[in-house]
Amino acid sequence: MHNPQSTSIVEHALQIATLARPLVEVIQRRDRDLASQVRRAVSSIALNAAEARGNGGGNTRVRLESALGSLYEAQAGIRLAIAWGYFSQVAANEALASMNRLGGRIYGLIRK
């Protein structure tokens, strides 16, 4: 079942990737493993949301749940980078706020 909101969710996820890219680049210089994990998690948000567009019924929900899990993983990775002192909270605020908004949108679709 195609959900018209899923297209805008994919676009939002791509915007998050754009916001996260400079953060991941900073992490990469200090912690390659964490950078790789955050990069994969951010990519997974968009990829699972896009896959949800082509799935029907319960499979759409599963893909959206996967996207939400990846979003939480990416948020945790960025917060860990802050905790390790790789960059400041202020540097990450825009990306984290956008992730919070997208998380709310995805959560709302899952709970419908």
Question: Mind telling me the CATH superfamily name?
Answer: 23S rRNA-intervening sequence
Q: What is the second-level CATH architecture?
A: Up-down Bundle
Topology, number of strands: 0
Q: Which fold name fills CATH's third level, the topology?
A: de novo design (two linked rop proteins)
Task: Give structural notes.
It is a single chain. The protein has 112 residues and is mainly alpha-helical. It has one domain: de novo design (two linked rop proteins) (Up-down Bundle), CATH 1.20.1440. Helix content is 88%, strand content 0%. It has four helices and no strands. It has helices spanning 4-30, 32-53, 57-83, 89-110. It is elongated and about 45 Å long. The model has no long low-confidence stretch (mean pLDDT 93).
Topology, pairings included?
Elements: H1 4-30, H2 32-53, H3 57-83, H4 89-110
Write out key terms for the chains shown.
4 helices, 112 residues, mainly alpha
